[in-house]
Amino acid sequence: MTEGKVEKMDGSLETFDKAKIEQSCVKAGAPPEVAREIAEEVSKRAYDGMTTREIRAIVLEELEKRNPEWADNWKFYDRIVKNRITFEKGKFVVVEKGSLYLGREVRDIGEKGLSDVEEVKAIVRELKEDLEHGVPRRTIHNRTYVLFMAVLRSKKLDREEKLKSIEAINEFRKELGWKPFEPKKPL
Fold this sequence. Notes:
By secondary structure, this protein is mostly helical. The protein is built from 7 helices and 7 strands, in the order E-E-H-H-E-H-H-E-E-E-E-H-H-H.
């Protein structure tokens, strides 16, 4: 589909944009040429009125086929930046504040974006726990990068909060013997 509308989760319509899919795939770790292939595959399967939920499912399917880590990075980014739980195989489970939610769609579970350094530190603590529970080091490495990029792109964090957040991420990376991340441009 080169032209046509996509139905967003809030019910509004937006013009189909293959470039958005490419950008999202690159952010998940896919090389630009693979991101273009995935965007092209989505474009072939897209139709006027398709939902963003359906598009997300195709993108995740394509990422998973090519590299499961990229799909995992996508889901992690959705959760930490967009406060969105991405479903897998039609279902998701979120346990938040003692309540259990079941459903069949992607759901926004809160306000988008990283809010403060304490939130970033909490995610770093969660990554430590994941590592202790057997999540591979490579996955943790990828997730620290996704978190770092999310901090850099955050519009809610001021310069000071971003610097503190990067410091928290880099302290964890140093504990694991990894090089710290450095912003390429001044904040």
